[in-house]
Amino acid sequence: MPDRAVLERAKRYIFCGRDYTRIDLRGYDLRGVNFTNCNFRGADLSGSDLTGALFICADLSRACLQGCDATGADFSGADLTGAYLRAVKFHQAQLWHTCLKGAICKQAEFFGADLTGADIARAEMLGARFDGVTADGLRNIDRAIFRWFLPPQGGKPVYDPFPGAVVLASSLTGNESFQENAGMYISDRGYRP
Fold first, then answer.
1. Res 174: pLDDT
2. Residue 104 lies in a domain
3. Beta-strand (E) ranges in 31-151?
4. CA distances (Å), origin 35, targets 40, 54, 121, 184
5. pTM (2 d.p.)
6. Do the domain assignments include residue 183?
C-alpha cells in the first residue's frame, strides 16, 4: 500500500492534461485532484466531491456537475460553456476568467467565490446565490438570465418580460432536476433513445 505522501503527489500531477471526454465520474471523491488542462467535454461528474480540485484551463463544456461540492476549487480560465451546474456549491471557488456562456446554474451557490473577469452570457442563473462574491470585471451580466416570465394563461416560460407575466426568480423544482426539454420525444428528429 503506497504511503499518504505518494498518494498526495499523484493527485497533484498524474491527471494533468488528460482527455476525459464523456467519462462517467458520478459520485467520485476527487478532492484536491489536479485536472489542469484536462478535457472533460460532455463528462458526467454529478454528485462528485470536487473540494479543492484544480480545473485550471480545463475544458468542461457541456459537462454535468449537478450537485457537486466545488468548495475552494479553482476553475480559472476553464471553459464551462453549456455545462449543467445545477445546485453546485462554488463556495470560496476561484473562477477567474472562466467562460460560463450558456451554462445552467440554477440554484448554484457562489458564496465568497471570485468571478473576476468571468463571462456569464446566456447563463441561466435562476435561484443562484452570490453572497460575498468578487465580481470585478464580470462580463455580460446584462445577457445572463436571472428571471423567467410565465404567461398568466399558461404555456412555456419566456426570457422577455411582458404585461401580466408571472415572474420566476428561482427554479420551481429547487435543487432537484427533471427533464428540462419538454419537447423531447415529441418530434421524429432522432431524439428517441
1. 59
2. yes
3. 148-150
4. 9, 5, 25, 34
5. 0.81
6. no
